[in-house]
Amino acid sequence: MRTIEVLLPIAGVAHHVAPLAKRVASLDGRVVGLLDNSKAGTRVFLDRVEELLRREHGVATVVRYAKKAAALPIPDEMLEAASRQCEVVINGIAD
Predict the structure, then answer these.
(1) Which of 44, 27, 60 is CA-nearest to residue 93?
(2) Which helix (H) or strand (E) holds 35?
(3) CA distance 20 to 3
(4) pLDDT of residue 12
(5) Residue 52 to residue 57: CA distance in whole angstroms
(6) What does the domain layout of the chain look like in residue ranges?
(7) Around Cβ 75, how many Cβ atoms within 10 Å?
(8) What is the mean pLDDT of residues 18-32?
(9) Exposed e or buried b for every residue in 34-48, given b needs 16+ CB within 10 A?
């Protein structure tokens, strides 16, 4: 009789816990960054998010950032710029 080897494709669980960012009380008058991950539907999605942020939440300024590829991390210089320029950053992921 032949033997079949069954593999379980799961990885170990990392025990590193990153704390959530502090929440702002309100978005009214704030500078909000929108990070586009470069996937096909993200720009349209973030256009709608921007519209809602301005109309319904009183966001004063929206700064847009775009990664070159979804699989790559945000470049250090873009991350530093976002942290200097924005009070809140939303990472948009859409297909």
Answers:
(1) 44
(2) strand 31-36
(3) 48
(4) 73
(5) 7
(6) 31-92
(7) 12
(8) 91
(9) bbbbeeeebeebbee
C-alpha torsion 68→69→73→77, nearest 10: 0
Q: Is the pLDDT of residue 84 over 80?
A: yes
Q: Is residue 36 within 8 Å of 46, Cβ to Cβ?
A: yes
Tens-digit pLDDT profile for residues 49-63: 999 999 999 999 999
Q: What is the pTM of this model?
A: 0.77
Q: Where are the alpha helices (DSSP H) in 30-86?
A: 42-57, 76-85
Residue 2 tokens, joined: 């032949």
Cβ(84)–Cβ(55) below 8 Å: no
User: Distance (Å, rounded) from C-alpha 62 to C-alpha 25?
Assistant: 18
**What's the pLDDT at 61?**
97
